[in-house]
Fold this protein.
Amino acid sequence: MAITRDQAAHIAHLARLSLSDDELDTITGELSLILDMVDQLQAVDTTGVTETAQVTGLQNVTRPDIITPCENPDALLQCSPHPITQHSVTVPRVM
Amino acid sequence: MTTDITTRPLTELSTHLTAGDFTSRELTDAYIQQIQAQDKTINAYVTTTFDLARQMADASDSRRASGSPLSPLDGIPISLKDVVCTTGVRTTACSKMLEDFVPPYDATVWQKLKAAGTVLLGKVNTDEFTMGASTQTSHFGVTRNPHDTDRVAGGSSGGSAASVAAHMCAGSVGTDTGGSIRQPAAFCGITGLKVSYGRVSRYGVMPMASSLDSVGPFAQTAADCGLLLMYMAGHDPHDSTTPDVPVTDYLESLRRPLTGLRVGIPTEYLIDGIDPEVLAVFQSAKAILTEAGAQIIDISLPHTQYAIPCYYVINPSEISANLSRFDSIRFGHKAPDTTDLIDLYKSSRAQGFGPEVKRRIMVGTYALSAGYYDAYYRQAQRVRTLIRQDFDQAYQKVDVILTPTTPRPAFKVGENSSDPVQMYLEDIFTASANLAGNCGVSSPLGQSQSGLPIGVQILGKAFDEGTVLRVAHHFDLSKQ
């Protein structure tokens, strides 16, 4: 299935990727090739077949509802490339 | 002590360490020498941890000297694919996105191997976020095949396979989502085990496609892989997809004979375009098993041709969801000079991710978007059910399934890199096992006339690693 450059640009926006004009040209063609390949799936009759979302057969894996402390929250915060103020990540203005 | 000791299989090294023939420090120093001599050419390691390795080796020697080793693996030097989080040691997924990322915690699999006394030599190369079949998408350049440095080591776990094959460690941990352990093991002439989904915890291992990812060992022999797996596998409260299935003594299961074992040959796998030398090795594998008293049975896996298209819907869909976490807020590359929050997300991701990662995020975002979800993602999940059922029915008639691991030996560096669809076909014999969640091993059985290794794949039922390793062990014995 061929997709258009405008469609590719819209998908890039949804995926939060800023692509250059060249990248968009290339990826539009590549997406069409890949979609052509996966379009083979449309030939399979799946009437009445249930979906496989996972293979373990496990259901409702829970643990006791007990609060356990995070060992080192500041070490996790240190992973952020943004300034840390009062144990919080400072991000650019949202509005 | 010479570097000769680096060529020996892991289980043999374990015996020598126990006997006191050499120390872990001597062994570790020998591997470090080997890395310093070889790795400029091979490029398996993206980060080396030699100081840490020597400290860990010394600590191991003290434990062995006082008669209290932690396990048979105590003092064994290993490498870890650079998606396995290691406290204080840079873990990059071989992406610019995480070039400077130092995790504040250990992946469960590393915690367990550390608790068994293994020694960390360093972190090894992979395709960016494990997306590829050649390590050519790595931010740190391609890993070369130790058997022919014009050729790739395979991928995505090419660094793991090459580090073992070039005797730059005794064993390694990699990940397999569609063939990323088995294919590089075959290309590099070593053993690589793709475990059943959930057999080894994925906690702290950077995810690609969460319903397909598995973490498994690489080493020279099936016995080596079995020993490693005993200290990697098991239920983990941090990973709710690890069923509480007991971890058995895989070395014990190797010793059992193959008499009466039912080996399935799927007719759909013998496609046109398989390299004749690969086919010859595959035929010799059948002969070896027949000789050992196994029963060869033709079987059918009718939906085989849909495995690759099914995989390349589910895989990018899960990637697009998983990699949305890389927003440059909590970790990862942050673009400078952005105007607002959306621009920060978009620019950071554009700069941090390479072309293959972007491609898969785009495909997945498309497949999951409104109006296309049913046609792509839901349909792929249904085809996945049919593929699983094929295997379930086959395993009523046979105990294991034998196939070539790859259609051809290692390809040249640069080949396939401009055609994503061609590269995706590298997974043709391997991806089904991930869709079904079963286990499989690639065993090095032969080589081409030009000296390139050729592997055979033994697929098995979920949580039946003992049986596939037993068959691979038999291939190991047949070469002696």
